[in-house]
Amino acid sequence: MSNEAPNNNERRGTKSRDGRQWTNAEVFAFLGFLNDQRKDGRTSKFVSPLLKKASEFMREKFPQRNWKYDSTLRSQFRRIRDDWLIFKDILDAPGTEWDRRANSFSFSGTQPEDFIKKHGTRASRVIDRGILMNKHITIDTYANIFRDEPEAGRNNMVVDDTIRVDSSDKPEGAPSGADDVSYSNGPQLLATRPKQRTKKTTPAQSTTPKALRIAKATAKKISDRKSFWTVQRVVDAMVCAHLRSPESRNHVVALRDIARDASGFSTSLTTALLCWIQKDPETNAVLWNTIQDTTKKFRFLSKEPGFEDVEFPSNLE
């Protein structure tokens, strides 16, 4: 990354749902759109309508790609936001300074390992590479776009993406009884989120067993849309349960990452991943968080017991 107009064709960051990395030009255009919406006062209270507008904007600017608001843009929005919240947490810490020219942090108080312990391995990447900036997209740009977001933290970054869906906004094929479960793809507040979960949320002790029973019911073939919402219910319920009484930070982070990517995984893969982490939370969650490359994770897991009949992505070779 460079703060002095990096090559717009350079590819950087995590692959999106379609298996393709974003170029700098695409990220800058997306950030510019979000910033303009903020400055013009048109930013919606909910993320979904905003991302639908962004989808039209990106399709006009980069027509060679399918800009799905509920997958491609939503996942990138979350990645940019989470990186910024970690960056800001580091920047605001006593004794920490950001050198724009050197594109690096200097530490005299809180040390890098403290941030890595707090935020996981994602903080290591932010410390090493910073966030994508140029002469138009600056720290002030990020601060403006995400000015209403809560402070960075493991719990915030998980709960932040699970806002309750109104009954009128559920997609066709969503499972019955979904009113008591949070969905990642429901309307998401761009304004400040409430710190307390609603009382209607299913209690942790009853949620987890029910979620596991749903997870194991994979023999019956169902439509892609219904399959996605079933998997999402499983993941969100488990995340909520462990947020109430977390067994370990690594466990929660691993569940969060699976929840974030669940719509890009097959039902059998997501189910197997959840069961694998639940089997040995301390060891398996740490392993999942340590391996950064998703393809390497899947290559490793494809040889593990319980993954014999799992549908992995086709690009593992």
Automatic annotation (TrEMBL):
Residues 161-172 have a biased composition (Basic and acidic residues). It comes from the Eukaryota. Residues 159-209 are annotated as: Disordered. This is Myb/SANT-like domain-containing protein. The lineage of its organism: Eukaryota, Fungi, Dikarya, Ascomycota, Pezizomycotina.
